[in-house]
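Table S2 (continued). Query chain:
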Amino acid sequence: MDNLSPPSAQEQDLYYDGLPSHPRLVARSSIEPWQSIHGPDRHPVTNLRRRKAFLPPSRHDVMRLWNVKDAPLRRDIKHQLQHLSWNAIELFRVGFEDEQDPHGWKLTLMVSVMPESATTWSVAAQAAVACKAVLESYNIFDIHCEIRESSILLLASEPADNLKVRGIDHLPSQDPRSLDGHRSPYLGTSIASLSNPAIGATKGLYLRISEHGQEHQATVALTCRHLLETTLSTNVEIRGGPDVIQPCQRTLEAYIANQQDQINYIDSLNSKQRASADYQKMKYDAESRLRAASLLKYPESRKIGRVHYAPPIALRQSSHHDSWLADWLLVQLDPAHQEDALSDLTNDIVLENHSGQKRLQRVLAQMKVQPEAPRFFDNKLYKLQLAGTVTERELRNPPHSELNDDAVLFVGKVGARSGLTFGLGSTMASVVRYPLKGMTLESLEWPVHHVKGDPNFSAPGDSGSIVWTVDGRIVGMVTGGCGVRSMDITYVTPIERLLADVRSRGFNVEII
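Corresponding output:
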């Protein structure tokens, strides 16, 4: 502590510049001086401030100590943080986006504290130094500890009343103005419960299930339990719950506002401009879309099915790993409200259009990832058909990549709010505290962070999104995230764990 000094206001605000949510630094164990924005941290050619970023932890001696069940190292770290209102403990390599030298990325113990906790530097610095000492007691000498302000969120969307910016949600359609995109059978569309149509989530994986001992199969969509409510005031098991609609109220209202804005813009032009054939067609098309959307203003008209089963959100125990937060529900699809026959449904991801495929190729090249050829089978919609799953063992021990000559799992997702994004999965679990219904549930989570070129991997409204590898295998489902105004880290429940939990509730289950 004697060699440490409090960070300046500028260091606190700019230390993590480049991360999606720009979190505020509280304290760090390193005594290495921070360079101001006018110093060496500026890029030598562009003179722009260099941007911080995360990379997965890589293979490190700490992995065998961190990922084991009831890990003594994690226990000892948590003991040193007992005086902080911490909500996440994670291990990432931290560096600058343009850093090419693998040694320039420093593996760091990242601790998040709640912004409203007003954690003082002296208390946080003591904790950071103590965590560093714990690591050294396990013969880990090359990892420092940093403490920042961030919140933990379940990623259902806010009600439409809380929207500050008009914007249209992601559309899994070739035409970003197509209402059909919001009503399509593709994964990644927004859904909500009829009992609370303003709270939106994402339609996830299609499954076929049957009760143990019964032959009848039901076709269901997987999503998050907190779709039903974010306060969890009635967090009980549900069998046969409320109707589910697609899209949610927020998405429909944003779509209507988008069309009305386009009409208003054309009406604001001078008479000569308004009379042009192009603008007349634009207005006619927008008015047609507005009329079509008005037919869906009553939530009942957007029904796709009903809640079939939803266990309470709770911690699950396992013989293989520590407690994790189970947050899932099954939506039984109503064949009378589906565009296609239920027997024809497939788990298709739409990469939006040609630009979506180009983005994928660009990010793959940037990440130096060489996967097997993705299963694109539609030259117009650029669809990726999901098949097969990734085991939890592979999540912790991904295949080798040319990215910094290391192991990395490159993943993508399509969410109702943020659309098509790409990220990198971690090889080490995150310890996360979820504040739910007046209590705190501590869960071991699999974290994903964004890649360069994507503003963030997820956003509120993306819960339920299916995460996949670029060769089309299913990784898991988005549930929550860590950040301030946006998400620096996204938490994904592994599909292997999810399906096992569904089976433990008395269901036979298979992926369509």
